Amino acid sequence: MRIQDRAHPTKCLASPQRPRHGLNMPIRAAAIRGADRLIDELGGDATGFLSCFGVTHADLDSESAVLPAATATRILRGAARALGCPDFGLRLAAHQDLAMFGPLALAVDNCATVGEALDCVSRFLFLHNPTLRLTRGPDPQRHAGVAVVAYQLSLPDFRHEPQAVDAGLGQLHRTLGQWSGGYDLLGVHLPHPPLVDPGVYTEFFGAPVHFDSTEALLQVRSTLFGQPMATLPDPVVRQMAVQFLESNFTDPREGFAATVHAALRRGIGTVPLRIETHARAFHMHPRTLQRRLAAEGTSFEAIVDEIRRNEARRLLTDTDLPLSQVSARVELADQSGLTRAVRRWFGTTPSQLRRDARRTVAQR
Q: Is pLDDT of 22 > 70?
């Protein structure tokens, strides 16, 4: 384990720990995208440091890689300590852009107003980081014409990591500025003491910053939510993007099994339906994945069987693919394997299932 810092050029100051249950929840590695480049810019060895956590540069640049929330938190905290850079989170926010939102960015970029964009992010934020909530509402201090955007953990029994809050709220501030083309930030509230001279925070946000608050939030003018987006939206693209998100992704806060089901559904035909493959994607051992699923009353095999069943039905009833190709797409050994599986699932043969579906369509 190595990270170069100003005092210890080869000493690794990161010590991976076993994350508590809630913080095992996977988030997109892109949530800390840019951390590797920032570590290198500050004189560290990002490759060696990230390897302490089983993370690579490619993971942070990937649109699909995930890692436990606790790992992302420890990377930020460890880098700040090792590099002697207490404002690491703020610096990271300055390195990030809207591309970090991945598939959500297309829907958000085509919203009509800033408020609509915030609501869209709030609804689908689980795609990026299911441990967080973004909410907008009235100013708790009841100042006229003032509203807030709150940055909240969805895991109430865990405290915010200060570096993660600085990075997240800093990125939210920059994002609101990009959406609106510039906005009035009236105040910033952070749930921790200053990690660096308070003037650094004031310079970054361009507004008064209050520390040791009860929650993390930005105070803005209420009119911001009705302000048009800085870029011209396309409502058709937005509708298509939202429909895609709704049909292809499941909020993991509904359960770990739902998360695994969604991952297998998205990858079928391109990602092998093997537990080792998907366990690596969730940064856990296959036995750990099975235990998590068993705790919710299911198993990897049961989910695979359901995914195969649904995909086989779709290919047989909605396409003209030869049966041999259907077998290959659902990862059954051969056509005879497909026949046995379809008999078990539907009580008929693949050919008969296809004929029945066509007859039903013709009779409509």
A: no
The answer for residues whose C-beta is within 8 angstroms of residue 125's C-beta and 6 or more apart is: 104, 132, 133, 134
From the number of C-beta atoms within 10 Å of its C-beta (0-12, 13-18, 19+), residue 203 rates as: exposed
The CB-side HSE value for 270 (13 A sphere, CA atoms) comes to 4
Torsion angles phi and psi, residue 213, rounded to 5: -80, 170
Q: Is residue 7 scored above 70 in pLDDT?
A: no
221-239 burial string, b = 16+ CB within 10 Å, else e?
Answer: ebebbebebeeebeeeebe
Q: How many helices (H) and strands (E) does the chain have?
A: 17, 7
The whole-angstrom separation of Cα 91 and Cα 238 is 31
90 vs 132: CA distance, rounded Å? 18
Burial 58-84 (b: 16+ CB within 10 A, else e): ebbeeeebbbbbbbbbbbbbbbbbbbe
Residues in the chain: 364
Integer-rounded Cα radius of gyration of the chain: 24
Q: What is the pLDDT of residues 182-198, one digit of tens each?
A: 999 999 999 999 999 99
Model confidence pLDDT, tens digit, residues 272-320: 899 998 888 776 789 988 998 998 889 999 999 999 998 999 899 888 8
User: What is 22-73 written as a DSSP string?
Assistant: GGGSEEEGGGGTTHHHHHHHTT--HHHHHHTTT--HHHHH-SS-EEEHHHHH
pTM: 0.66
Query: Do residues 323 and 351 lie in contact, with contact meaning Cβ atoms separated by under 8 Å?
Result: yes
- Dist. CA 339–CA 363, nearest whole Å: 26
HEC assignment per residue over 258-295:
HHHHHHHHHHCCCCCCCHHHHHHHCCCCHHHHHHHHHC
